[in-house]
Amino acid sequence: MVSLLTFTTPPHTCAYLPDRAASLEYEVVAAADAADYAGRMVAGWRRFGHQFFRPVCEGCSACRSLRVPVATFRPDRSQRRAAAANADTRLVIATPKVTPAKLALYDRFHAFQSESKGWPGHGPKDALEYAESFTINPFPTEEWRYYRGRRLTGVGYVDHLPGALSAIYFYYDPDERERSPGTFNMLSVLARAAELGYEQVYLGYYVEGCRSLEYKARFRPNEVLAGDGGWVPFLT
User: 134: domain range?
Assistant: First the structure.
């Protein structure tokens, strides 16, 4: 790994729990490989593009890294319904690329989340910002495009790590929300990991009290990163 810059943000309003203050430790890398990132991930780091980050919030440890052991995962009734509801959805896995259709879908998704769940508002995502977050990566990343017919309905980004997949981010057409596209995306990632014989799928941070992140714990059994740096069973 080749590091360019490390810094910690000053305390600011938490995007997940607005009544709390958050600080993030960042490391910007010029180069890294999947094994480098896997080592960071088991220590609680995440990334967008070349920016690695982890929460270092004073007096708060609500952000908990969560992963699902692939061999023991079993979908519940609700997840099976989501799979059936998306039976006509087509998945295309390709190299990440910025397009007007993805930018428009990303903005629609965030506008809906801001209105319905109180996410912080922001203006339209420009092509460079999008590229820096999702398409310019220190090692190869997959772009998962979901379609109904020819209509783009969702986009996800997935890292292949040694023995694991990491779900980076996913957004979708709000008109599809009754089909539970986020659940279907996670089921697709878990199914792909099983096909590859991988041991784990990393889902990012689980935060109790944050509606947008609590759903991750429904993929069971799962594990969370404990304070001593080890992974322990969470919800079984």
Answer: 64-233
